[in-house]
Amino acid sequence: MNYTYILKCADGTLYCGWTNDLEKRIKTHIDGKGAKYTRSRLPVTLVYYEEFETSKEAQSREVKIKQLSRKQKLELIDKNKNEPN
Predict the structure, then answer these.
(1) CA angle, residues 17, 13, 46, in degrees to nearest 5
(2) Which of 39, 59, 72, 73 is the most buried (most CB within 10 A)?
(3) What's the CA gap between 23 and 1, in Å, rounded?
């Protein structure tokens, strides 16, 4: 499985990425060994993710999320919290 995710950093910034091992990637960010961007903004919290069959789909979604404004990203996160599992 492949994932697109959004992390919320301690300073309130949102970081978007993609991975094929979500658990390992998030642990890496939380441990301070992730992207240079998140290392300087610890701690980080996973606030959103989506699953995809292929890495190409996940990468494409990551690009689309990165193009969203902060307000649109927050709306996406809030919508996801309100959807039933």
Answers:
(1) 50
(2) 73
(3) 12
Q: Where are the alpha helices (DSSP H) in the chain?
A: 22-30, 36-39, 55-66, 70-82
Q: Render each residue's pLDDT in the chain as its tens digit; 85 residues.
A: 999 999 999 999 999 999 999 999 999 999 999 888 888 899 999 999 999 999 999 999 999 999 999 999 999 999 988 765 5
Cα–Cα distances in angstroms (integers) from residue 36 to residues 32, 56, 59, 76, in the given order: 9, 23, 19, 25
C-alpha 39/C-alpha 9 separation (Å) is: 9
Indicate the pTM of the whole model: 0.89
